[in-house]
Amino acid sequence: MTILAPTRLFDGETVRTGAAVRVEGGRIAEVLDAAPADAMRLDGLLAPGLIDIQVNGGGGMLFNDAPTADTLRTITAAHRKFGVTGIMATLISDSREKTAAALDAVSEALEAGVEGLIGLHLEGPWLSEPRRGVHPAANLRALDEIDLIMLTARRGLPLMVTVAPERVSPEDIATLAGEGVRVSLGHTAADAATVEGALAAGATCFTHLFNAMPAMESRNPGPVGVALANGEAFAGLILDGIHVHPITARVAFLAKTSRRMILVSDAMATVGADRPDMSLFGETVSLSHGALRTASGTLAGAHLDMANAVRNALAMLRASEAEALRMATLTPAEFLGLSDRGRITPGARADFVLLDAQFQPQGVWIDGERAT
Question: I want to staple 22 with a disulfide (CB 3.0 to 4.6 A). Which of 30, 34, 324, 344 is the partner?
């Protein structure tokens, strides 16, 4: 048994002073209003471990390059330094064989107990060609019966897919959602009616809102307009000040609130690595002024970590501490349907991050054990 007594504690909803957490067997046994004398004193703000639903890579590794359990160990370890205790490993549009390998790798890693891994996010290949971004056109395809069988097979892992609703029918979205797959809409040029049809069929999120989708217009709201007007759908946001202008991001935050906005990193291999460049499908992607771009200038993922995203939420969105942290903890957990993550409450996993006054991570705990 361990009792942690931080200066302040964020429980998923509110910031509390003087509270303590009793941990037993990797779970939270009790949240105390006051710390007993034998508690471990922690100087800082203790919060649930950060959750990132869109992680392409880290530590010099890109999941697409080697979809294996060892790659996932490297990526999760790289993001752990930034307070992340749960990631959805993300595969950028690739071949059917690579998609199958990614499913197998995440299943194997979860069975092996790789720390910091939640599940798999397949970002495509069922996307709109005009809005594909850096996703290779040759890898894009329509969703077929083989895909449906592969995606709905009972593997015991949280699975999220990003699809363009003009490429995937409402019937197929309903099939995926009915099997517990989290369907998110992105890389799309669909009109508002098509997007609303996808939401009605079971889609529940928008992938990196504003990016890889047309701008909202007065008589053509498109995916952005539908996302902002819908009070139930979640929306991921790459909050690096590059992918989305801070004013635009603030408009989205005011519309979605911290209960439906999810901070995501869209992190590439450069996060947690020494090299300022990487290879993506044979093309060099270089880091300059905080942005990862191809030689033609196209944004290729992000050089962003979740702790920095939280700090940006405080500065750019003018979010409160509780709002900024919720968008990186409880809100993504709720989107994924994970009742034991993203909160400090009895029965939840003892996954924590300790933050200093500047919201820099000072320590991470996974299953009650302080991680290295």
Answer: 30
Both tokens assigned to 282: 């044979």
User: Which has the minimum average pLDDT: 61-70, 146-155, 209-218, 353-362?
Assistant: 146-155
- 36, 2 in Cβ contact below 8 A? no
Task: Identify which of 173, 185, 184, 250 has the alpha carbon closest to the alpha carbon of residue 223.
Answer: 185
CA distance 14 to 283: 45
**Closest listed residue to residue 89, CA positions, set 159, 13, 173:** 159
Nearest C-alpha neighbor of 203 from the set 241, 163, 236, 240: 163
Give the model confidence (pLDDT) of 255-313 as tens digits: 999 999 999 999 999 999 988 888 888 889 999 889 999 988 889 999 999 999 999 99
- Do 32 and 20 contact (CB within 8 A), yes or no? yes
Model confidence pLDDT, tens digit, residues 114-135: 999 999 999 999 999 999 989 9
In this structure, the number of other CB atoms found within 10 A of the CB of residue 296 comes to 7
Please pick, among 11, 94, 266, 351, the residue that the annotation labels catalytic: 266
Q: Is 21 helix (H, G, I), strand (E, B) or coil?
A: strand
Q: Rounded to whole angstroms, how far apart are CA atoms 52 and 325?
A: 12
Q: 76-91 pLDDT, tens per residue?
A: 999 999 999 999 999 9
Tell me whether residue 33 is one of the annotated catalytic residues: no
| Cα–Cα distance measured from residue 52 to residue 353, given in angstroms and rounded to the nearest whole number | 14
CA dist 67 and 334 (Å) reads 27
Longest dimension (CA), the chain: 63
Give the pLDDT score at 275: 83
Does 154 score more than 80 pLDDT? no
Burial of 259: CB neighbours in 10 Å, binned 0-12, 13-18, 19+: middle
